[in-house]
Design goal:
The protein is α/β, with parallel strands linked by helices. The chain folds into two domains: about 1-60; about 65-245, TIM Barrel (Alpha-Beta Barrel), CATH 3.20.20.370. The chain is built from ten helices and eight strands. The protein has helices spanning about 1-30, 35-60, 80-90, 100-105, 105-115, 130, 135-155, 170-180, 200-210, 225-240, and strands at about 65-70, 95-100, 120-125, 160, 185, 190, 215-220, 245. The radius of gyration is 21 Å and the shape is globular. The two termini are about 20 Å apart. The model is unreliable at about 1-5 and about 25-60 (pLDDT under 50).
């Protein structure tokens, strides 16, 4: 309770400082041209970002906080860059891969495994109509993925992420068939919206949504802007006291059917 009061006081002070700063800048620079004005706005946003980081760094640390960075749709031309960034930061992630992309990027698949990352599947078609055409069609897709992974690496996996999440599209019969075969279905608790966002928007989403939960599953994709935002994402999560680890088959899944994606 006392910590909450301190945080509120800091936020209030920060707000007043920003308002005062904006007023002062406006007073001193009311005749500047449009290009300079844009630069000033960027400077104010950057100052707010840094101040927010300092507050979060000091107020949300906990030894038990866990974050899983999960990356969909690969492997791709960006995978090597992603793996380099993860290695540089001593972080392990989890990759939910598409069948044809595994075939096209077998070296990257094997590198993921060799470097200790979690590997799972995102399907073959990535199309709702195909994936749920019959009660067993989704199971058949993931069995195909498993066969491909085994051919490429000698490994198998029971980790899967259904395209667009396990709800609302997945029929109950398909879901049950997957679970009965031992597949562990993972959704997410923090969607970065990176597939449609800029680097700065992705970082902003992490700053805003990646806060109080003790365990979070971060959803990202193999996109150029996602690669650009990955280092900042890792930095923010570490500063907030999260330990970043890969998902394994021993990790209890979080998904929308179980209903445990809220905390």
């Amino acid at each position: 309770m006392e910590d909450n009061k301190k945080i509120l006081k800091i936020l209030a002070s920060m707000f007043l400082v920003i308002i005062f700063t904006i007023g002062l800048i406006f007073y001193k620079t009311k005749n500047i041209d449009l290009e300079d004005s844009s630069k000033l706005s960027e400077s104010i946003i950057d100052t707010t970002y840094k101040t927010s980081n300092e507050i979060n760094k000091g107020s949300e640390a906990s030894e038990n906080k866990i974050a899983y960075i999960t990356i969909d749709d690969g492997p791709s031309k960006y995978t090597s860059q992603i793996l380099d960034i993860l290695d540089k930061n001593n972080v392990k992630a989890t990759f939910f891969m598409l069948n044809n992309n595994m075939k096209l990027h077998s070296d990257e698949v094997n590198r993921m495994i060799e470097e200790g990352h979690g590997v799972g599947f995102h399907g073959v078609s990535h199309e709702v109509e195909e994936l749920y055409k019959t009660p067993t069609s989704s199971l058949e897709e993931f069995e195909t993925c498993n066969k491909t992974l085994y051919e490429l690496s000698g490994k198998t996996s029971k980790l899967i992420r259904l395209p667009y999440g396990s709800k609302p599209y997945t029929p109950e019969e398909n879901y049950n068939n997957l679970v009965e075969k031992g597949y562990l279905i993972w959704d997410w608790t923090l969607d970065t919206l990176d597939w449609k966002s800029s680097k700065d928007q992705i970082v902003s989403n992490i700053l805003y949504y990646g806060r109080e939960k003790e365990e979070i599953v971060v959803l990202m994709h193999e996109k150029e802007q996602s690669v650009e935002a990955l280092s900042d994402t890792i930095k923010i999560l570490k500063e907030r006291g999260y330990t970043l680890i890969p998902i394994t088959e021993k990790t209890y899944p979080k998904n929308f059917w179980i209903g445990n994606t809220e905390g």
